[in-house]
Amino acid sequence: MNTKKRRKHSWQPFTAGILVVMMLVSGFVYYDHNRVQRPSSTATAEELRDHYRAHQCQPGSRKTLPLADGTQVTLNGQTTLYVPNDYGRNGSRTLILNGEAFFEIPRSRDLFTIKSDKLITTGYGGSVRVRTAENQAGATVHVLNGQFTVKKPTTLPPITSPKCWNAATKSCLTATST
């Protein structure tokens, strides 16, 4: 009789370990791929330089900016707002935002538009906070009052406020008024 105990080598723990490592690596690669800074789809660098004035707010500070039509914009830190040179003339009220800003927009018959690489927010007046940065994955719009339409720069159907659109989760939540 054989008195030696035979050791059983199981391949299952080894295979499970390899699968866990592969899933972690692929998750990291996917996450890192989505964080790559995308070029702005709203305007080229030449268009911004030639036709817009850039208003920047340094990290850790806020900046209030009055516009020609009476709109008050409060820029949060690390934000750039591009205002066209012809803003307010001929009904032109379109801005380009990279960062976070709060807008108090007087009611007007001319459409007010905030563009970014992820969202286009339009309305005729009210208070709205928009957060959308080129180097971040998500974007949010909080409507405090007024009615705004939020849509992606592609041809998706618009989302009508009063809502809060979160582009990262692709969900819409009811906005709170203060």
What is the gist of this entry?
The protein has a single domain, classed as Jelly Rolls (Sandwich). 17% of the residues lie in helices and 39% in strands.
Q: What features would you describe in this structure?
A:
It is a single chain. This protein has one domain: Sandwich (Jelly Rolls), CATH 2.60.120.1440. The chain has 2 helices and 11 strands. With 178 residues, it is α+β, with helices and mostly antiparallel strands. Strands 1, 2, 3, 4, 5, 6, 7, 8, 9, 10 and 11 form an 11-stranded mixed beta sheet that branches. Helix content is 17%, strand content 39%.
Mean pLDDT: 79
Principal-axis shape equals: elongated
Distance between the termini: 85 Å
CATH class category label: Mainly Beta
CATH topology: Jelly Rolls
| Biggest sheet features | 11 strands, mixed
What fraction strand?
Answer: 35-45%
Count of separate DSSP helical elements:
2
Strand elements, count: 11
Structural class: alpha+beta
Count of discrete domains: 1
Q: What would you say the CATH architecture is?
A: Sandwich
Radius of gyration: 24 Å
List the helices and strands and how they pair.
Layout (H helix, E strand, L loop, with lengths): L11 H23 L10 H7 E6 L5 E4 L5 E4 L3 E6 L9 E12 L6 E4 L4 E13 L6 E13 L7 E2 L3 E3 L4 E3 L5
Parallel strand pairs: 5-6
Antiparallel strand pairs: 1-4, 2-3, 3-5, 4-5, 5-7, 6-7, 7-8, 8-9, 8-10, 10-11
Features of the shown structure:
disordered C terminus, alpha+beta, single chain, Jelly Rolls, 178 residues
